[in-house]
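Example 9 (inverse folding). The structure is encoded as follows.
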């Protein structure tokens, strides 16, 4: 039997994130101002055709798969990338949020968009905050590091948008934010996981140090009509 994390986007869109989902036959995708991710039950020709019917000329879809897929010619592959999928396996993190960490909400969206544009941790759109539980670190009133929840293929919850302003790296902000995200997820009786580009060795070392272990390699495709 396939593991729920072998098809994380589809399982998120049909479980923990279904309130943010748009259904298209055998395919599901997030609302276009939340995230570009799309999930298909079997990555079959019929699933791709269902996704195509809902693809506008300017729409980009991102799919994840544990193995290479044959993308039909009516989709253009804009990018193909390799990741590791990592699951948190350490002891429970601290039970209280550190005082240096702030919960983020709608009033912080413009700062969050600016920081993610600068650091490029992955897609972050106007309503990506609807994934919930974003936290940040401020210095002199400016947001300089952040992280939050993203896909929820229950009982797993993904940590994402982990980023630090280039002028403030090396100070442990990412580790603190990751542990806070893990704390929140575990407190909800769920399991933290994340995805990281295989070439991002610096981030991988941070994740391993605080208790994440690689589960499987996974592939990503960025598609347009």
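The amino acid assigned to each position is listed next.
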């Amino acid at each position: 039997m396939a593991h729920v994390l072998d098809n994380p986007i589809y399982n998120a869109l049909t479980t923990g994130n279904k309130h943010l989902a748009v259904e298209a036959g055998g395919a599901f995708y997030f609302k276009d101002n939340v995230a570009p991710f799309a999930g298909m039950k079997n990555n079959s020709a019929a699933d791709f055709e269902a996704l195509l019917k809902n693809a506008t000329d300017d729409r980009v879809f991102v799919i994840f798969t544990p193995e290479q897929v044959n993308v039909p010619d009516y989709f253009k592959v804009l990018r193909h990338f390799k990741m590791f999928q990592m699951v948190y396996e350490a002891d429970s993190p601290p039970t209280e949020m550190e005082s240096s960490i702030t919960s983020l909400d709608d009033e912080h969206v413009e700062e969050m968009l600016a920081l993610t544009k600068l650091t490029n941790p992955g897609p972050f759109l106007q309503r990506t905050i609807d994934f919930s539980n974003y936290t940040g670190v401020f210095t002199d009133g400016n947001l300089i590091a952040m992280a939050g929840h993203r896909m929820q293929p229950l009982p797993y919850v993904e940590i994402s948008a982990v980023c630090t302003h280039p002028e403030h790296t090396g100070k442990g902000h990412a580790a603190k934010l990751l542990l806070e995200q893990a704390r929140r997820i575990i407190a909800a009786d769920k399991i933290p996981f994340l995805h990281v580009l295989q070439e991002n060795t610096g981030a991988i070392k941070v994740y391993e140090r605080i208790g994440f272990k690689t589960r499987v390699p996974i592939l990503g495709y960025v598609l347009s009509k």
